[in-house]
Amino acid sequence: MRLRVQIPRVEPAAYQSWPERCPRCGNATFHSHGFVHKPIRDTRLDQVRPRRIQCTACGHTLRVYPQGITRRDQSERLRGLSIFLWLLGVSYRGVADVLTGLSADLQKSQIYDNVQQVGEKVRQVQEKRLPQRRVRVLAADCTHARVKGQDTVVLQLSDGENELTLGIEVLSGEDTPSLQAAIADVAQVVGAEVLVSDDADPYKTVADELGLAHQVCQQHVVPNTLVLLVEIADQLEKRAESLAGAEVPKLGQALADILELEEIILWRCPGSQGRLEALARRYEQEPLPKKGQRATPFARLKLLTMDLAADWPRLTLTECLRDRDHRRFVPRTNNVSEQRIGQNIKERYRTMRGYKSAVSLVRVGTLTAYLQEEGDQALIRALAA
């Protein structure tokens, strides 16, 4: 994974701004009250000198820290570096070893806490920002990850046009109720009009129930359909050797229909709906195989043409919808969700045996997405959130 971030700097001589009001009495004036020494964990410094200020009304004293220093015993530079190294794929133990070499000792548990704390802050920030987004195309896809040794379903929701992560949710299963509950919340908040997904039936039901136009990822359907047509054609050619004379025209018609289906699939014109329905009617009387029997090529053509005729509006929605400038805005594929899954969830997951908890999975995925999408200063903003 390529991840570029700016690590916070520590400026011992540059102090943060004074508070506007005293937290105890609300007074707005302070005066300097000297300095104190504060031990600090950092890659370069072992102590800093926070300034003490005192409220002129009640005498309450506060500390004003140098840039990059907080009340924690770790500098922001050290926290940012530990998080950055872990996200790049170094284990907690490995990060601890690297920091020890830089004269900044941290335990594995402290590094874990750094990742979790910033991940939770980013998750909350993203949740607050979600109502401010306006998303026409909501892309959804599921993947699986190990959480405490158990297989877990994870839903990735993305902006299909701008390729931004909208949410990462852990589901109880890849079923219609679970998907609908997760997708409905985000779709309503962002005002989505279109859902892009793979061709799994639960997504079709969810789109219909939520009143969303639905584009099925063509990359999931087209290659598989072409392979299926080749298999059926090969099955017909082998069957030709045993067909009686009266069945030869039927076989010839089926081979011609396969060529027509191939043309329809490759061109994917919305106006081909009528051709598909005609092909489906041609094979609607073909008997389906009983349990334990192998389907005939004609039965397979029946099922294929029925499915294509039913799903054709979902496969060609991208050709039908246009924006005000008559440009296509619905993507043909769901690559945006698959890429985000690879970057946000699977990339770090490859170097681990699994996530410690579902909460950690969501935090880490959200943090990774935030750092990739928000620019070089994203880590500094996350630490300061």
Key attributes of the depicted protein:
385 residues; alpha+beta; three-stranded antiparallel sheet
TL;DR?
The chain is an alpha+beta fold and 385 residues long. The chain is built from 13 helices and twelve strands.
Question: What do these coordinates show?
Answer:
α1 crosses α2 (92-101), α3 (108-129) crosses α12 (358-373) and α6 (218-239) packs antiparallel against α7. With 385 residues, this protein is α+β, with helices and mostly antiparallel strands. Helices cover 47% and strands 16% of the residues. The chain has a 5-stranded mixed sheet with strand order 10-9-8-11-12, sandwiched between helices. Strands 2-5-6 form a 3-stranded antiparallel sheet, with no helix packed on it. The longest helix has 22 residues, at 108-129.
SSE layout and pairings?
Layout: E1 11-15, E2 30-35, E3 38-39, E4 47-48, E5 51-55, E6 61-64, E7 66-67, H1 76-87, H2 92-101, H3 108-129, E8 137-147, E9 150-159, E10 164-171, H4 176-190, E11 194-197, H5 201-210, E12 213-216, H6 218-239, H7 248-267, H8 273-282, H9 297-315, H10 317-320, H11 335-349, H12 358-373, H13 378-384
Helix pairs in contact: 1-2, 1-3, 2-3, 3-12, 4-5, 6-7, 6-9, 8-9, 11-12
